[in-house]
Write the structure tokens for this entry.
Amino acid sequence: MKNLLVTIRVSFLLMLSLPALKVSAQTNYGTLTNTSLSSRVFSNLELFFDSQSQHGFFESPAGSGKSPIYASSFWLGGLDNSNVLHVSQQTYAQSGDQNYYPGPLDTLNATAAVPALWDHVWCLTKAQVQYHIANWNQPWYVMPTDIETWPGNAPVGSSYNKVLAPFYDSNMNSIYEPALGEYPVFPGDVAAYFIANDNYAAPQNGTPSMKTEYHVMAYMYNSADVAVSNTVFVKLQLKNFSGQDYHDVYFSNWTDFDLGNAVDDHIGTDVGQSMVYVVNGDANDEGSNCYGYNAPACGLKFLNTSISHSMYYYNINNDTLKGNPVLGGDFYHLLKAEWINGQHMTYGNAGFDLIGTNCNYAFPGLTDPAFPSNDWTMASAGVVPDDWRILGTVGPFDLLAGGVKTFEMAYVVSYGSNGTLSSLGQLLTDAQHIQNLYNGSALTINDIEHHNLMVKSSLTGSTVEIVCPDDMKGKRIALKIIDITGQEVLLNNYSSADLLSVDVSNLSQGMYIVSLSDGNKNYTSKIICQ
């Protein structure tokens, strides 16, 4: 049983209905599912863990009732120009711990939005958006709520950033207009998006908040590539709204893995892969809804940056060396690979020998470049598998006023064929494969793509000539011209064309959107008839 404090939180089902943003009846989590995994992300910057039900939602395989991860969230800490420590962190978002709330910060004084108005996770599939692209102007079309209410813009009259969530802006006016065929933009085949902040309430850790806004895009792919389909991707962008610069800043992904049976986890770090991971601590992951023999391995890796530290701690209250952190300084120490009393982690044994050599990575095996010939794991140190927490950290760095940082991460689950070590070996292979795909931008192949058309001729005459994109040549394509009210004013079909000559003599003067579609990709351009 987890040693957690329970808080009863009242959820208000409200609807915000303003011209630039409509939020539907509140859904404070989004569910990502493919044939391999099912997971939930929550609007309070909590990944996989529901603080109300105290239940984790990261299921692998999907539908099995088994889970390698219980909870995950993010820590951020740094010093202002007066060297005052600011820390924003969260573990289980419960009493004494919730520091993140739904909604953006205003750009004037970092005042937080009312959480109930933003307690929503927008969750969409690629197929829904493609259907919207193809049919948005049909009289029978019913727009999905999360396309209609996608938070592309801040509410009119508010002082939040004007553009919030990414969207395709067909007429380039910086206004999200799904009724004109515009749509959310996201990677993957299913995605969940939400906005959170750390300034709605004072931090529970005794330090000032960082006054940061977080935009989170979690996504998954339906892929024949097993490693890809067994991965949840998370892109987190944070912005400093405090009006002051921070230095010695650290950002961390905190994870309570709980692979099946929570009390036999064996954790470690692969420094070269910028990954922290868990494997089962013995041959049999025993217990109800556990993996039994041949349990998987699970890792959290950073894709767009290298981790500088990893740190673990014991699930023990009132232990001033290695137990659960409480105060902002405790969390900041852990971010820097220090125990909560400020003693630096040392290499070997359990990591807190006073005569040991300082190190920055917990149980790295042979991957720590500072100790290339020493194999330090929990097993080699004789540390008993248990209910550990582990951090993968980036820093120190400066976070200037108005500064933005983006972190892209992957939660990877891998199954070996012959026990724990084979699962760990498969995880290392899969994680490198995911990194290679990311480095080569191959993971963007399923993005909803939209490109500008090349219009060759002037529109002062009666025709317009449009260059057919190379990847549409030889295909059957549909050309639409749409006026600024969203009405389709022309529809033509073409096959195997290189240059399209379109008669626009019947169109009135004004601006139009011309669109080409082959059923998968869409190309557009803004044209003006004079």
Summary: The two ends are 72 Å apart (CA to CA). The chain has two domains: 16-444, 450-529. Residues 24 and 341 are 46 Å apart (CA to CA).
